[in-house]
What does this fold into?
Amino acid sequence: MAKADVKLPQMQSGFDFGLCRRNDMLVKQGGKPAKFLKTGTTIVGLVYKDGVILGADTRATEGEIVADKNCEKIHYIAPNIYCCGAGTAADTEAVTDMVSSQLELHRYATGRESRVVTALTILKSHLFSYKGYVSAALVLGGVDITGPHLHAVYPHGSTDTLPFATMGSGSLAAMSIFESGYKEDLTREEGMELVSAAICAGIFNDLGSGSNVDLCVITKGGKEYLRNYKKPNPRTYIREKGYSFAKGHTQVLSTTIVPLKDKVTIIEGEAMEE
Amino acid sequence: MENDMGWMNAPHSMGTTIIAVQYKDGVVLGADSRTTTGVYVANRASDKITQLTDNVYLCRSGSAADSQIVSDYVRYFLHQHTIQLGRPATVKTVAKLIRELSYQNKSNLEAGLIVAGWDKYEGGSVYGVPLGGTMLQLPFTTGGSGSAYLYGFLDQAWKDSLTKEEAEDLVVKAVSLAIARDGASGGVVRTVIINSEGVKRNFYAGDKLPTWYEEIAPGISPLESLLSGPAPMVDTR
It folds into this structure.
């Protein structure tokens, strides 16, 4: 096997837009614009009597293929703040992790519980400075000393403050459920039913969303992360013969045994000292 | 799936109708409440009139992100400015700050803004800061995609020395006219009245707005006539 000597390009600081220029040039020459891979998603949030309820589906797609049938789209930001993410999975994961660690340091510095608007401002200014290239569309919800809050955050850095919000490719299906079913001061059960109905609308009517429903209920007293609250897509076919394959199913062409003891020398070392 | 969902990933923009009118003792600002992402209405109840200081408010149009960030930054700066100055900032100062950000970043921003408020030196004043960063003080001005339908109307309907009620009626009528004709404007009408006594926010839901079309008289729907009419002919061959 020939060893390729790869020269990696020098990493300048900040975002490298070089490939954008290349893509523009290719399009001008008549090629197709490059597609990038996003999670089709349905994420929702609503404010109810005692706090906020966030919901999300669990399908992660790579183009037309389902990459993860049960991924987690409701990210932790603070003990009292959670954030659902739609768009490029890497971007939502990275941006929520970043805000979460900044908020933790802020909590140590101030000695107080984090506020939702703090997370909102950090997200907003980060996304705006990347001009929409960090493709993260988020539904941020939480309860702090000033009350329950729900915000929708868009990739270009704009935010909306709403009593109910939906995002992702399944947002239209979910919004139709919310617009017909939402009212002020919902009880916890009504809120959870409405949120799971909205996510199911996305799961069944949007190709980019599917699998299970995740819920997160946040109140003044605490939070309840209900992973896989509903599983409306069980795997119903089970092969009679089972899925284990005994020895003899695959033909063995050749066998080579390499004892690792010859390759590795074990030295007795001194114990680590404090 | 990605290509035909292009409109869903379009930047969040505010089609919008925004307006500000100076009257005898102050100003009245008005706006619709529709924020669109391509052709989808992302927020049907947005608040496009944001507070910059106690006595100066801003009407935002254009890109939602750009206008929000500009208003956040100017609000933050004005907070410090007010403390250092020791008295409320004048409307002109606020407008100049907005203009400075808008003009110096004209190639990266897409925000049409109207600054309006009351201070004790000039009374009520309205400043338009459209795309590009011009600053113009005017007795009344409009912005956003719906403003195109209001120039003629306002030229004819505006007069000097309006009272507070007349000015607010004019603003509500103007925004509802624009909503009737502009697809990118809709929802509710929000108004803010600023004068020496303070700030008053009002909200006009759809049913409170004048309609500019005739409602079609309710008649029998095709479904009803099918259900109540004679049974369809059956071919018994």
In short: The mean pLDDT of chain A is 89. The interface with chain B takes residues 35-36, 38, 40, 64, 121, 124-125, 127-128, 131-132, 135, 152, 154-160, 162, 169, 171-172, 207-208 of chain A (CB under 8 Å). The radius of gyration of chain A is 24 Å.
